[in-house]
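I'd like us to work through together how a protein chain folds, taking it slowly. We need material for that, and I hope you will provide a protein of your own picking. Go ahead whenever you are ready, and we will take it from there:
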Amino acid sequence: MPVKEGTERQVVLFVLCVCVCQSGAETLRYSLAEEMERDSFVANIAKDLGVSPSQLASRKARVVSEGNEQYFRLNLNTGVLTVKETLDREVICPQSDICTLFFKIFFENPVQLIRGEMEVRDVNDNSPVFPEKKMVLEILETASPGSRFPLERARDKDVGSNGLQNYSLGSNSHFSLALGTGKDGAKYAELVLQRQLDREQQREVNLLLSATDGGSPPRSGTAQVRIVVLDANDNIPVFSREVYEVRVAENSPPEQLVVRVAAADPDEGSYGRVRYAFTQTSERSRQLFELNAATGEIRVSGNLDFEETKKHKLVVRATDGGGLSAHCKVHVEVLDVNDNAPEIVLTSLTASIPEDAPPRTVVALFSVRDRDSGDNGRTECAIDGDLPFSLTPTFDNYYELRTNAALDRERTAEYNITITAMDWGRSRLSSRERIFVQISDVNDNPPEFTQDVYTISVKENNTPMLRIGKVNATDADAGKNSRVSYALVREKGKEQTDVSINSENGDVYILRPLDYEEVRAFEVTVRAADGGSPALSAEALLRVLLAPRSAEPGALVAKVVAVDADAGQNAWLSYELAKATEPGLFRVGLHSGEVRTARAVTERDAPRHRLVVLVRDRGQPPRSATATLAIALVDGFSEAHLRVSEEAPAADPDGRLTLYLIICLACVSVLFLATAAAAVFVKVRRARQSMAGSLPTFPKSAAESSAGSLPRSYVYDICFSAGTVNSEFRFLRPLFPCFPAGLPHGPGDQRSSVCSANLGEEVDWAAQVRDLRGPR
């Protein structure tokens, strides 16, 4: 605002007009003086719009200036619009007498735009300035009184009354000053010769030229004018045209010829030689065009910009060697070319929208600006690709990006939207803006089980908290909406089930041991619920089948070992099952002698079985022997089935000395028996070598064979669990051997049964079994 004498500087701010346009948007018009300090008060937007500051804050109001510079700031707490930075009208609007800044008040919730215009008033902060501090004029001494001589025009960046208003000339005896106004309204000054010059009396005249503006207080600038008096030259240069009008494209390269001005002087010699120069031409025009002083050619020397200045006015002065000059005007019109691509300015963006957002939901608000003119500045926008979004134009080249279809995050979780803005020029230019929109999840998908019915089998007599299986459900949603938890559905009137389920991973556990005879199957309902609000759920049926325990096919029962004193083929032995209570239940290894189950043991099988194993060699004729096994099917090994005492004898506190005496006596006896046995062995060996063949026999005791064979024709009482699947077994008490009728006996076999008279005698059968067990 202008500062007046006798009063303090103050900011005068008023609202010119608040109106409603046909488009439904309000327009606020304000005025402020340039050079106001930063954060100076401009207007109370809340008051002018009739809303409270809290409404401004809740609706996320903000001020948006057109272009790249933001000149104002809106305080949401007070509703006051302030200047963001100090404004300089001469910088913002260098070519315009009226400086208007356009801005918009933007509300996000709901979306609303209000136009605003701010007129920046000029203050007298610039003094008139001459382009040259010293001007030289050459005037013939023959110049007649009344001759006029144009002077360089002063420039004042201020406008209106603050601009250039008057010229004045220092006192002298030869010249006066004449003022004039050009068609463009600018004032200029000319020197008027009042009295004839006489070079012989005065070769030079020095004048002081002053330019004054209309500010309060006024500002002024000065320049020195040096008049050089020349000898007589009776012809002045004459231009072929007073005004040259030319057009040039804004993309013209440097050194391109614009126009050639020409002035003729009929004088001879130096008086007829003309030189050209710019006069009364703006500094900016002098930067964009250059003038050849000798030829009068005007060429491009800078980058022309139609959007900056559409027309340039040049004044060319032609001066001959005698100092006489003439002037012509050159009007250069800059033609627009499509050299500016559209600019996309994003005003508001919602980076994430829920997948249940209804169609026509606003996602973003942006504007498009093209600095070109005509069709070159006309733009259109489109979205690349087939996406569920559309563009809706609003006003002042603003567009809204909206959804135009239902969204589904499970199908597409995010969108990369490319907006293309293109102008209508002959060589169409375009620009692109990419907007990334993420679709947030909504709990719209219930969990889904991989199966409708889960069937799990478990064997009876299980251990408590045994994991028997797993159920699985998936949810297509994301985050907590996809977090599945499991639970059993409790039915009214029914007892608590014998199973439990892990709520996190769906593992199913048996709570207590079950008995196949009590319950053979049961069903429970499993519910899977997600973590959404409200939660969605699904149900599946869990069927538990109880299976009785039984030995699996191939379980090792026992191993029968036989030795043959022959050699070669006569000592090759093979085993077979000669007789069995249930032939299909057991089998014997042909070469290993291992007795294994041929099928799974069931409850329908007899509790006790009797097997007769036959072993024969490959001699001619073959010889054979048998062994009988007694097998009992039990649920587990217990004292009721183990006939052999496993208790160790009580230690005798005085037995250590007795043990030493027994060991000494045994050593002596063994040494004697060994000597006798060696003699007998030699005789027996010689007798056997003379015999042609012998029958295969079982050893009489486990000590007779280094291979660990069992006593010949022994009966084994074997017990194993119906669920045993490994090779563990235990021998019980030895039974009295009994050979079936009709089985052949070797010459060395004895019919009499050998058994222990003392049933309480402790026999380490388990140790013998471990010696007899072969590879599994």
Q: What stands out?
A: The CA atoms of residues 163 and 727 lie 117 Å apart.
